[in-house]
Amino acid sequence: MGTKHGGTVIIKPISEVATYKKNLIPANIPDTYALKPMFANIASEENIRRGVIAFKDFLHLFFDRLTEEGHLYAKPPKKPASIADYPFLHNITNLLVDIGYYSKLSESGDSLLITELPSCAAPKPKIPASTKAECLRFLTFCGFAFTDSEVSYPSNPILLTGLKALSVADMELRTTRRYWNDNNLLRCDYRLMKAESSDMLDVLKDLIHPLPEKLQEFAVRLHQRYTNMGMTCVLTIRGNVSLSYAKSTQDIYSKRVWEFSYSLKDGYCLYVRAKKTKKYADVIEKFPSYLQEKIANGYGCDRKRGEPCQYSCQGICLPLDDSILEVAKDIEIWLDSEI
């Protein structure tokens, strides 16, 4: 799902992009969690939590409508930079953030009063008038109602409180730059608002919730095994969404040992960046031939081999499907040997 590094980009249908993004919505958002004090001036904690759940429900509708009718709205550019390069998605999420962040919640909470929309402002709007109109039509299709100075969501008004709080979190609390393919709002990232840090096991469970139960159990078992050994687990978003594991937070990017990854290109995978295989060659000899071949092929930069970038530098790729369950114990032995 990342940026092109060589070769021709073949863009995925908008229906596939919608399904991918829908899977990133948290499966279960808790009814109770403490919020950072900065949200106290928006609404009560209870109403914000209810609003976030309402917004999560809206996102499911949003992506379902995008799957069904998105081809009428979302058109790829002539020279797409990635397999998910739909400017419509970028524009509509920026518009939603503008609405949530810059508008004022009415006293009743039933509408947002528009004060400004910087992405649409002259003289050089990021979202041109014609594009804005198209975005508003699609949001209307998904249940929003607009007047010249007011936004409402008649079927479930508490959603507006959730939109307001999530937009503030996206604008003020995210620790990385917002890229076109990474918007906290579309992932309903309520964790940014929490007063306490999130349990990474819960983050993992949200990431893998669409997988069959046995594959989820495998992933949870690996996570618990190695975090219990003292490894650090960090959520990273670099086009794909990954949970990376390393000996320390400082090692996550350059020295991570392995990661669970979900991408539009490859789906759910386990990547292992094995660097010490020569030291335990005798252990590898006991693995099934499938796993031996994977390890023998190694990983590295495609461009150094004269090929278009396929992100092979991520590590040795093992799809998270039934085949990985057949070598589950061997993978534990492999990772034990590597760390």
Account of the 3D structure:
The protein is α+β, with helices and mostly antiparallel strands and 339 residues long. It folds into two domains: 14-193, no CATH class; 200-338. 38% of the residues lie in helices and 12% in strands. The chain has helices spanning 14-22, 45-69, 87-102, 129-141, 159-172, 200-208, 213-228, 281-284, 289-297, 322-325, 328-338, and strands at 104-105, 112-113, 145-146, 150-152, 232-238, 240-246, 258-263, 267-272, 316-319. Strands 5-6-7-8-9 form a five-stranded antiparallel β-sheet. A four-stranded antiparallel β-sheet has the order 1-2-4-3, with helices on one face. A hairpin with a 3-residue loop joins strand 7 (258-263) and strand 8 (267-272). Helix 1 (14-22) packs antiparallel against helix 2 (45-69), helix 3 crosses helix 5 and helix 6 runs antiparallel to helix 7. The chain is globular, with a radius of gyration of 22 Å. It starts with 13 loop residues before the first helix and ends with a helix.
